[in-house]
Amino acid sequence: MTMPQQPALYLKPNVAVEPLYNQWYAWWYLVAPATAPLFVANHHVKIMRSFVANPALHVAALKNPALAGGPYINYGPERAGEVKELLDRTLAEQAPSLRFAEAVAELHRLLDGAEGHSLEELYPRVPEVLRGYVELTYDLNNRASPRFFESLLYRSPHYRESSQSLSLRLLQGDVRPYVFSTPRLGTDAETVHVQQPFRSEALRRLLAMVRTPGSVGAAAEGLGVDPRDARAFAALFTEAPPRPASRFEGPGVRIRYFGHACVLAETREVSVLVDPVVSYDVPSELARYTQLDLPERIDYALLTHGHADHLMLETLLALRDRVGTVVVPEGGGGLADPSLKRLLQSVGFPSVVALGELDSLDVPGGAITGLPFLGEHADLNIQAKLAYHVRLHDRALLLAADSKVIEPRVYDHVREALGDVDALFIGMESEGGPLSWMYGPLLPAPLARKMDQSRRLNGSNSQQAAELVARIRPARALVYAMGREPWLGHVMAMGYHDGSPQLVEARRFIAHCRERGIDASLPYGRGELLLG
After folding, report:
1. Pick from 111, 144, 177: which residue ends a domain?
2. Which of 46, 76, 123, 527 could form a disulfide with 523 if both were Cys (CB 3.0 to 4.6 A apart)?
3. What phi, psi does 207 have (nearest 5°)?
4. Structural domain total, the chain
5. Model pTM?
6. What dihedral angle (degrees, nearest 10) is formed by the CA atoms of 358, 364, 366, 370?
7. Residues 109-118: contacts with CB within 8 Å, 24+ apart?
8. Digit-coded pLDDT (tens) for 56-67
9. Does a structural domain hold residue 159?
10. Where among 87, 122, 144 does a domain terminate?
């Protein structure tokens, strides 16, 4: 008897495929093999132990909106047993990572004793687990630190693809709980969890089904979906095709704002997407462009830096089949500064180009040039960050991301090198979190509170943004990268209100620009600009 052929179906455009590392939402530092163990040991384990010991403390803390981004698990006390199970499994399965993290701490203690004499005698004393993976160096002030050979670590047992997995579920709206302090326990009947590495070919085929229909059975088999999840998996598909992909065919340059720091610049010949964090196609009263409004082919995707609201693995993996070349800043090789190029190659992007400051990449009808990016990294020596100058059809955009204009004269030199700018995009998250909020798990020792609070992840305030405008003289200025859109809440937890200092500073800057005849705005949800 011949079985009826199953129809080819599309993946629904509101399916979120979250990348997880040991059941925690994955970002830059949970992919890089030198940093993932430190976050497991110094962040995940500590939070889970705290919750298991006193879940009521976490519940009480999260009643205060100001603590929404803090180290508190967002579950009720009834889930303490499940968190304890994950903690115990982590201590067992992640034992090599815990040993790696302890070895890094031991290495820092070893180098603390270096006083300017040759480091050669210290190599035999490097912890065994790190031997052959680090170079010991001094800076010019005789401060010793390790440099990790990332290329070797990605080929070593310390790069744990076995800890990578995926969580699939339908989104009914934009709002998702904050993800960096709460693991995914995987007990939701509507969520499908599959054990697949991020570079998985089966994942690529699944995500391509948003636009190209395919077999649900073959997708389930390729992903290794548990038969008990068959019904939930089948609910992720539809017979309805998506609306056609957008492609700009007009003259000049079309610029579309997709929310937060995501900007698409298009001509007839080329498409350039910057910091791809894009909304799903979900019911909402807020007008926005979604992933369905992107062109079928994205020629270049630019990443300004590795923070999760700019380099979002979830969105990047969803677009992997459509992106030609990813452009990233060169990394510095330090523990807090892993290579974005190696990271993206490890998760399946075949064409990744790393640029330095003032390096240019020719594209049809123009060029992409990397620019200095000051600030927003708490004074750490992080080099994997770039602003971008994008020139298309003799029109120029400057996408400054979260740059803080600490030294305005940098932009005198930028304008001298690159000329006029038609549109400036500048982030003004003028009051960001302290250093420890993002980098704490990487620190060899906790910072004093006053020191931690003084070194914040700040972008420009109105005075600093005005200095930038005075030097590059743009025809128009747009304040972006503010984290206001609701689809950013799971990674930013901003909680703005009308009197928030960030919005006060943004409005002050916009008024400053308009007083000087510069068109200025604060886009929200979506926006479009045509440059003829």
Report:
1. 144
2. 527
3. -65, -30
4. 2
5. 0.95
6. -20
7. 109/444, 111/136, 111/144, 111/145, 111/146, 112/144, 114/138, 114/142, 114/144, 115/142, 116/142
8. 999 999 999 888
9. no
10. 144
